[in-house]
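Same chain as my last thread, 126 residues:
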Amino acid sequence: MLKEREIMAVLPAVDMARASDFYGNVLGLDAPQVMDDENLLYHGGNGTHFLLYKTDNAGSAKNTQMGWETTDIDGEVADLRSRGVVFEDYDFPGLKTEEGIASTPVGKAAWFTDTEGNILNLFQRA
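reply #2:
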């Protein structure tokens, strides 16, 4: 049954107003559907969405929590940088970013964090 259902990412936030400002004013997402004071539902392309919920546990994950697929990672990175987004630089075995973008056999990727410490990324398939 689950294979036929939409998948929804769920992201934590300590400060809902700060996080909402980031997603709306910095990333340029449309205003969320307000579920209640502690839950905001953001809609993306092609029927996708994610839930932002209030919790003190935000920022504790050390892995990518959500990403967007793009066909123009260089343009998206440039646009987000112009809005104040800072991209992470990594230098791990098998993964090194150059000017915030890593090239891998499967595509290019770039990572940044939101105001709550969640690690987000952009990905462009090869």
